[in-house]
Specification:
The complex is a heterodimer of chains A (475) and B (93). Chain A has 475 residues and is α/β, with parallel strands linked by helices. Chain A is 37% helix and 13% strand. Chain A has 15 helices and eleven strands. By secondary structure, chain B is mainly α. Chain B has a domain of 40 residues: Orthogonal Bundle (Histone, subunit A), CATH 1.10.20. In chain B, helix 1 crosses helix 2. The radius of gyration of chain B is 22 Å and the shape is flat. The chains are: A alpha/beta (475), B mainly alpha (93). The interface between A and B is large, with 68 and 50 residues.
Chain lengths: 475, 93
């Protein structure tokens, strides 16, 4: 049994046995899984672990297993975005983050399930079927990186990577009771991440502790010339791991609480803020008046960018091809059969929002509202060090509850999408339970000030036991 | 308000084949989302610049030097539709 262990625990086990044995025990756990979190288990994982044992890699993650979301390119290992249209696609190159992980000695166990093309909040739209929440298999794990969160929560792997376009790391982290970070836009290279909405998304780490998140950021963060939005800025994330919030100023945006927020979720978040006060931090309410419009702005921008980014899936170079008399018919048939319903809806809406006559009304308007949302963050964060709010308005909902009504599903992203519009960093940490399901506290910081939110999250973890709770089945 | 005909036209622009029955369903679901998007009309954005991007990066230049690229075989490995080192697709016209 491999239940919840952190990097330091795994390193001790490797020292006492071997990387091969540790990898084998995780593979055994995955074999018995009932949550459908992994889409592919890498058949070379044991070989890589044996190589680490033999060559004595001294990297930060030497011999430590990790799982990778289906939309991050891995040489020789299927990368499909959980879509029928990319069935059979095997990338000929590694994403920047994968190169970094391999150099640090990490052992990739396999790929994890997601909402098709990262468009969703529940991991139900995957062509591989839904991933189940290990806390209650009748509920969703959140999304779109639902597989990456669920396999960590279920003890099938200690670490994973997800991607966060509008909450896709933080939402499943909250729903599954693990830690997840969305870095500042530009902090982690997107090279090799299959684009959905490129001005909004970042690759982000998931783990059971804040310490492991910082270590993983030390490995995957940093400049990469192949991503033109990568920012050249050095940072040691693990320097942030100090139990000290004595002079920390917390802002609580009133628009992120109240109407639409589950009572038990709100209570867990206020209890957490009370705990920070006990630990010596101070807090005050702040106002971010354009929050209400962030959701519409986000969806218009995300769908518009998606309609352009997903144009490459046309049956010409990889994945599914449905034959037709000319190229246009071939592409139209391939895309009709290869994309799922939600992906098609978003491409159609994005195409509409960008089309002649509607561009100014929808796309340009959304970009202007984005400016106002960003100014809300600039203003609020000029006065406080961090913002705190519930990650998700409710605990994990039931499988099937929202999937047929796109708008009701979009509304669940209300507290996560503004962060992507502003490009600021945000971490979700476990802070209690509602209806027997984990609740996430979201801690939002200034651009490139990951270290302050990591320190705040680490201090909370050192003084509470929420992060030690685990699903009964994997305890 | 998106009509059924409009849905079929967008489908063509996006190269997604949509049959008549589907067009009805799409029109209904797309309109409910567009209604929601309409709330942005209330926001006063006079004189506000659009944010395409949150970072101050404008253009990133590099020297025009030949770099190593992927071998042609590997690039073509994901399709059986290839010929003489090229991707092979049906005629455009």
């Amino acid at each position: 049994m491999t239940a919840w262990t952190d990097i330091s625990g795994i390193k001790q086990r490797i020292a006492a046995s071997s990387a091969e044995e540790v990898t084998a025990s995780y593979l055994e756990t995955i074999e018995k899984s009932r949550i459908n979190g992994f889409t592919t288990v890498w058949d070379k994982a044991l070989e890589v672990a044996r190589g680490i044992d033999k060559d004595g890699n001294s990297g930060l993650l030497a011999g430590v297993p990790i799982a990778i979301k289906e939309n991050i390119s891995t040489t020789g290992l299927s990368t499909t975005c959980s879509s029928k249209i990319l069935q059979g696609y095997v990338p000929p190159y590694d994403a920047h983050v994968i190169e970094k992980l391999k150099a640090a000695g990490a052992v990739i166990l396999g790929k994890t399930n997601m909402d098709e093309f990262a468009m969703g909040t529940s991991t139900e739209s995957s062509c591989y079927g839904p991933t189940l929440n290990p806390w209650d298999t009748g509920r969703v794990p959140g999304g779109s990186s639902g597989g990456s969160a669920a396999v960590v929560a279920a003890g099938e792997v200690p670490l994973s990577l997800g991607s966060d376009t509008g909450g896709s790391v933080r939402c499943p982290a909250a729903f599954c009771g693990v830690v997840g970070l969305k870095p500042t836009y530009g902090a982690v290279s997107r090279y090799g991440l299959i684009s959905y909405a490129n001005s909004l998304e970042q690759i982000g780490p998931m783990a059971t502790t804040v310490t492991d998140i910082a270590i993983l950021m030390d490995v995957i963060g940093g400049y990469d010339h192949r991503d033109s939005t990568s920012i050249n800025r050095k940072n040691t994330y693990s320097d942030a791991l100090k139990d000290d919030v004595k002079s920390l100023k917390i802002g609580v945006p009133e628009e992120y609480l109240g109407e639409g927020i589950d009572e038990a979720v709100e209570k867990a978040v206020w209890d957490a803020i009370g705990k920070y006060e006990d630990m010596g931090a101070s807090w005050k309410k702040v106002s971010m008046p354009h929050t209400k419009y962030a959701l519409a702005s986000y969806y218009i921008i995300a769908m518009s960018e998606a309609s352009s980014n997903l144009a490459r899936f046309d049956g010409t170079r990889y994945g599914l091809r449905v034959e037709g008399d000319n190229w246009h018919i071939m592409a139209s048939k391939t895309r009709a059969q290869g994309f799922g319903e939600e992906v098609k809806r978003r491409i159609l809406l994005g195409t509409y929002a960008l089309s002649a006559g509607y561009h100014d009304k929808y796309y340009l308007k959304a970009l202007k509202v984005r400016t106002l949302v960003k100014q809300d963050f600039d203003r609020a964060l000029s006065d406080v060090d961090v913002l705190m709010a519930p990650t998700m308005p409710t605990p994990a909902f039931k499988i099937g509850e929202k999937i047929d009504d796109p708008l009701s599903l979009y509304l669940t992203d209300v507290n996560t999408v503004p962060i992507n519009l502003a490009g600021v960093p945000s971490i979700s940490v476990p802070c209690g339970f509602a209806d027997g399901m984990p609740v996430g506290l979201q801690i939002i910081g200034k651009p490139f000030d990951e270290n302050t939110i990591l320190r705040a999250a680490y201090s909370f973890e050192q003084n509470t036991d929420h992060h030690t709770k685990r699903p009964a089945e994997v305890a | 308000m998106i009509t059924k005909e409009k849905v079929e036209h967008i489908g063509w622009l996006a190269r997604i084949e949509i049959d008549e029955k589907e067009a009805d369903t799409y029109a209904e679901k797309l309109n409910s989302v567009l209604d929601y998007f309409g709330q942005l009309d209330e926001v006063d954005t006079d004189g506000v610049e659009p944010t395409y991007h949150v970072m101050d990066v404008v253009n990133v230049f590099r020297k025009d030097e030949v770099r190593k690229s992927l071998p042609q075989e590997e690039v073509l490995a994901n399709t059986e539709h290839r010929q003489e080192g090229n991707f092979k697709a049906p005629r455009i016209m």
